[in-house]
């Protein structure tokens, strides 16, 4: 009866040991695979390691969109490519390259271009076609025309050989002899030689006469002005001109006029001259012109067609003179009787041979 009890106890102890041994082994394995290892130290999956090894490091840093293979990295994929603006800049530069050829040329620095950009006489209205002398319009009038009889050789233009500005102008016309197609002679001075007794002389105009240096010529080529009337010697060219005037009764004038001088140097004559006086430029010897200071307003210069008109004259017996630079006196004493308010008209002929140099 005593043997069965020990066997039963022994079987019970063995069963309990087997149960305790199985529970302890399962608990140990669970701790080593899931609990001890933290998430930050988990190894990369095999696929992630292979993709990262295939991508070059430089590309992955500079071009994250194309080189980031992992779907678990969305942030780099949203960043723009740093290299994308470069092609746009290159394209813009390529389009701009032909632009310099399309741009208008910069203002030329050569003298020929300066001719167009200089302050021309015609633009500022400084030089009138005829100087205001103060004679009343209409009234008693003497008018006429001077024509050339025969054929006069046209003067050759001047080809400047000094001063870059003048050379760039090319040929400069010689205005010492200007004849219209139908023979009218320009630049003939016509004036009342002597005032009749009791004639009232209008006051001297306040408007100044202008002698301009323009395109290496004097403008106007011929004009009349009053004694006591201001004359302004100007310069429309970007080069200096020496203006020398040689009167007989008045003081001489010899002065360099600065380039582009639109204010002018003032000259006033105190005495009437006997004949027109010459102006020259010592820097440019081909430049020459004539003007005539008189002590009354009854004088004129023939226009491009050889015509002249003197208005507001005192009525009566009048004596006129005509003069041209090529021949001197065209007529020394022309007697004309004009009634008050009437018009006398006369044509004068000049032998072409007398106009030759």
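^ Assign residues to that structure.
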């Amino acid at each position: 009866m005593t043997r069965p009890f020990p066997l039963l106890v022994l079987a019970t102890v063995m069963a309990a040991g087997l149960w305790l041994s199985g529970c302890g082994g399962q608990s140990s394995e669970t701790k080593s695979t899931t609990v001890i290892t933290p998430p930050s130290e988990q190894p990369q999956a095999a696929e992630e390691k292979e993709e990262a090894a295939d991508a070059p490091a430089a590309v992955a840093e500079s071009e994250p969109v194309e080189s980031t293979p992992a779907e678990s990295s969305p942030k780099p994929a949203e960043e723009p490519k740093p290299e994308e603006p470069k092609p746009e800049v290159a394209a813009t530069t390529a389009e701009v390259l032909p632009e310099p050829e399309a741009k208008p040329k910069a203002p030329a620095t050569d003298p020929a271009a300066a001719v167009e950009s200089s302050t021309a006489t015609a633009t500022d209205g400084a030089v009138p076609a005829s100087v205001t002398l103060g004679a009343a319009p209409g009234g008693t009038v003497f008018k006429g025309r001077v024509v050339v009889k025969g054929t006069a050789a046209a003067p050759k233009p001047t080809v400047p050989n000094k001063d870059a500005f003048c050379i760039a102008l090319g040929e400069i016309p010689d205005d010492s002899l200007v004849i219209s197609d139908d023979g009218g002679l320009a630049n003939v001075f016509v004036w009342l030689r002597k005032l009749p007794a009791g004639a009232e002389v209008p006051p001297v105009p306040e408007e100044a006469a202008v002698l301009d240096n323009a395109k290496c010529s004097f403008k106007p080529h011929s004009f009349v002005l009053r004694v006591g009337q201001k004359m302004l010697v100007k310069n429309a060219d970007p080069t200096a001109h020496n203006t020398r005037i040689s009167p007989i009764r008045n003081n001489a004038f010899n002065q360099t006029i600065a380039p582009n001088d639109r204010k002018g140097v003032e000259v006033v004559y105190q005495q009437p001259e006997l004949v027109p006086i010459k102006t020259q430029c010592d820097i440019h010897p081909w430049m020459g012109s004539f003007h005539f200071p008189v002590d009354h307003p009854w004088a004129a210069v023939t226009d491009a067609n050889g015509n002249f008109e003197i208005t507001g004259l005192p009525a009566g017996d009048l004596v006129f003179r005509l003069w041209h630079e090529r021949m001197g006196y065209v007529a020394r004493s022309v007697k004309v009787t004009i009634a008050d308010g009437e018009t006398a008209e006369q044509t004068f002929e000049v032998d072409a041979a007398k106009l030759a140099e």
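DSSP finds ten helices and 16 strands in the chain.
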